[in-house]
Design brief:
This protein has about 90 residues and is α+β, with helices and mostly antiparallel strands. It is built from 3 helices and 2 strands.
Length: about 90
C-alpha cells in the first residue's frame, strides 16, 4: 500500500492498441524497475484485465448492479440556499 507522498510509476504491459496499465513504486532503483517490468510482462496472462477474464466466476457475482424500482418516481432534492453572509465571504475570496 502506498502513502500519498510516495510516487507511482505507470507501466504498460499491453500493446499499443490494447494497453494494460499497472502502477509500481517509482522510488525503486532502475535495475529493480526493469526486473519487475520483465516479471510482470512474463506473467501478464495471469491478471484479470476484464470481467470476461474472470473464468469460473459468474458475472452476476463480479459485477455491481444497483436495482431500482421503476414504479417509484424519482425525486429531485431542493437546492440549498446559502446564507447571505457566507455568500458574500465566498465572493471576496
Amino acid at each position: 500500500m502506498f502513502t500519498e507522498d510516495e510516487q507511482l510509476m505507470k507501466l504498460n504491459l499491453g500493446i499499443n492498441g490494447k494497453p494494460h496499465m499497472v502502477k509500481i513504486n517509482a522510488q525503486l532503483e532502475i535495475i529493480k524497475v526493469l526486473e519487475v517490468e520483465q516479471l510482470l510482462k512474463e506473467f501478464k496472462d495471469v491478471f484479470a484485465w476484464t470481467y470476461k477474464d474472470l473464468k469460473g466466476i459468474p458475472l452476476e457475482l463480479a459485477q455491481h448492479i444497483i436495482e431500482l424500482d421503476t414504479t417509484i418516481p424519482s425525486i429531485n432534492q431542493a437546492k440549498y440556499r446559502l446564507i447571505q453572509t457566507m455568500l458574500q465571504q465566498s465572493n471576496n475570496i
